[in-house]
Amino acid sequence: MARSRTAGPGHGHTTDRVADSGTGRATTCPQGAAMGIVRVVEWKLVCTPEEADAAVRRAFSQLELGPEGEPGRIVGRTKRSVLKNRWAADVTVEIQPLGADTMASCTVEMLGNKHFAVLGDLAEAVGDGVFDDRGVAPALERLGRASRLFGLKEVRHLRNLLRASEGVLELGQGQYEGKQGLVVLTTERLFFLEKSLGSETVEEFPLRVITSMSVNKARTGETLKIFASGNHAEIKSMMHGQADAVVRRFHSQNQPAPHSATAVAPQQVDDPIAQLERLGQLRDKGLVSTEEFEAKKAELLGRL
Known about the structure:
Pfam families: bPH_3 (PF14470), SHOCT (PF09851). The chain is an alpha+beta fold. The chain has three domains: 2-130, 2-Layer Sandwich (TATA-Binding Protein), CATH 3.30.310; 136-254, Pleckstrin-homology domain (PH domain)/Phosphotyrosine-binding domain (PTB) (PH-domain like), CATH 2.30.29; 269-301, no CATH class. It has helices at residues 49-62, 115-126, 136-141, 145-150, 152-161, 242-254, 261-264, 272-284, 290-301; strands spanning 2-4, 13-19, 36-45, 73-78, 89-98, 101-110, 168-176, 179-186, 189-196, 199-206, 210-218, 221-228, 231-238. A five-stranded antiparallel sheet has the order 1-10-9-8-7. A five-stranded antiparallel sheet has the order 2-3-6-5-4.
């Protein structure tokens, strides 16, 4: 189980590190020196790498970031804005194929905590039409209206946390360790997301370490029980049907593929009587001599 704290809205998976503001390399700085925080978000785009590169460069130009760099790598810099309470930021987007689609790895390095505001501006300039929904909309539609409204800020921030390789299977709303937030089952993990002003809490369970899930039902709602690597966790106060839906999708996602019947079927052993009949036919056709037939007959009868 992993916990992380970040902040702001966006479209992909997020990793953070503290870096030298000039190089982007993780480092320690002398006491009192300014330290830039680097945050990386993965976007999955439903277009070719060439189209993605062109769209990102147009967005950089629209935002006056002065795009530079070779194809597949766009580099720019935002100016400090007193009105928006933002420091200057170095922004890098690296484009690479992802199956039939494209992954854009976006890195923002700046002081303060406005990284996702910068990424939000960039995403808006790129255009929502090229972003892969990753299954968020249909999963959200299956929630009740109350859950959709309650978890609105978590849903808006959800795409910051999704890896380019994963999709959303089910969503729910519940309480974990006294915090109310969003329950997310993806193709790779189950995580709980609680977002408040300026911070977030993420509790993550990779699917590969989850041994089982179960549901306790009560009049007040459902409790999702998660067993992973010897640990036990509970997400409480989920609305009726939501924990059930998560458990069903978890089991269907982790159900082993059926083995091919031909691959596992044991090799059949020929029946000695059937072999004798075939040998008799071969003898009658002159393909096997009488001596050979009698020798083989004795061998086969010895098996009975």
